[in-house]
Amino acid sequence: MMNTYYDSRRFELPTIMKHGVGVLSELPATIRELGVTKPLIVTDPGVANAGILNKVITTLEDAGIPYAVFDRVVANPPVETVGDATTSYQNNNCDGLIGLGGGSSMDTAKGVGVEVTHEGNILDWEAEKRDLQNRIAPLITISTTAGTGSEVTMWAVITDSARKFKFNVGGPLLAPHVSIVDPVLHSYMPPHVTAGTGMDALCHAIECYTCHYAQPHTDAVALLAIEYCAKYLRRAVANGKDMEARYYMAMAAHLAGISYGSDSAGAVHALTQTLGGIKPEIHHGPAVGATLAPTMEYNWIGEPEKFTRIAVAMGEDITGMTERESCLAGIEAIYQLAEDIGIPTLTDLGVTEDQIPMLARAAEGDPQTVGNPRDIDAKGYEWIYKRCFGLV
Question: CA-to-CA distance for 384 and 12, rounded, in angstroms?
Fold first, then answer.
């Protein structure tokens, strides 16, 4: 596929975005603006245990807004979790949703929004097979991590346990109605979560900037997201209360989410999405952090001008360098960032060398493969996996 800006493209952004320190206070007014009388808060035990859920509940109770809570979201949420949350929504007579947490909680909330406005369950609306027909139930997303950008994307990633496969549901009808990004809520993240989610944000920006579906609108936000990650991710990991770093990392994830919401990604997300489906105990962010730079080593010859620009966004001085040297300097900066913030290796995550052929075949079948800037098949994915293990 030839990547040209003059090919037909479409950019759509249905979500209202509210961001800034303390912007959680606008939640009651936002609920009323949407005409919601009783939202279901969809979240996970970690968010509840950190005290963030209580902050949201207090905000609602002080405003006299009734609510219900579903706090049983798990990482890589399966179809069954979405169904359980939908049952909670219906049993509590809710008419709107608050997705509170990281990508798993927000994607689960999106899934509920689909199930209560469409027949069947979320599995019936896999994007590769069927487009959504109706706007989902009113959804407010409140991010507690700076990574997935799910608070603004038009996609949800759900796990089909039977197939050991993650599938996408999406399109403009799935987009959240309002996104609230308050970096104060991000200050509860421990360093390793900050690191993993931050690398996910960086990956979204890099993949969407270089993929075949790139366009000027998404290039602009992706490049700024890369710059923010290069400047602020180390600080956010080192000092979780550094509100400047927290704000700009929140914006990095948000901007990268805008680029990902309109584009596809590429090989990193193809291999980590399939890896998470096969091994659900592996969290997405660390897997992305472990595979981003090796994948860039494979990909740079497909978009050398853009990979050169990534080096500049990462803060590298490319004066006097050849194009090849510039591309590799940017990739080395990614390797160094991952090392500095303690991203685990695939071995640390429990992946073994003998699994490479199987994992490579799975990645080849992921729909995001088609957007990759360099043609890739199972052999290419094997090279990336081997590179992660230092075998090539």
Answer: 33
Half-sphere exposure of 119 (CA within 13 A, CB side): 0
Q: Biggest alpha carbon distance in the chain?
A: 65
Report yes or no: 307 and 321 within 8 Å, Cβ to Cβ.
Answer: no
Q: How many CB atoms lie within 10 A of CB 312?
A: 17
Task: Please give the CATH topology (third level) of the domain spanning 16-186.
Answer: Rossmann fold (3.40.50)
Residue boundaries of the structural domains of the chain: 16-186, 192-388
Predicted local distance difference test score (pLDDT) of residue 1: 45
DSSP 8-class letter at 59: H
**Whole-angstrom distance, CA of residue 224 vs CA of residue 217:** 12
Q: CA-to-CA distance for 65 and 38, rounded, in angstroms?
A: 7
Matching fold, domains 16-186 and 192-388: no
Predicted pLDDT of residue 164: 87
Residue stretches of the chain with pLDDT short of 50: 1-2
Q: CA 266: distance to chain centroid?
A: 13
Structure tokens at 26: 């606008």
Give the integer Cα–Cα distance in Å for 387 and 392. 5
* DSSP symbols for 71-113: ----SS-BHHHHHHHHHHHHHTT--EEEEEESHHHHHHHHHHH
> Given this model, what pLDDT does residue 8 score?
76
pLDDT by residue (tens digit) across 16-43? Answer: 999 999 999 999 999 999 999 999 999 9
Count the neighbouring beta carbons within 10 Å of the beta carbon of residue 294.
Answer: 25
Neighbours of 375 (CB within 10 A): 10
Superfamily (CATH H level) for 192-388: Dehydroquinate synthase-like - alpha domain (1.20.1090.10)
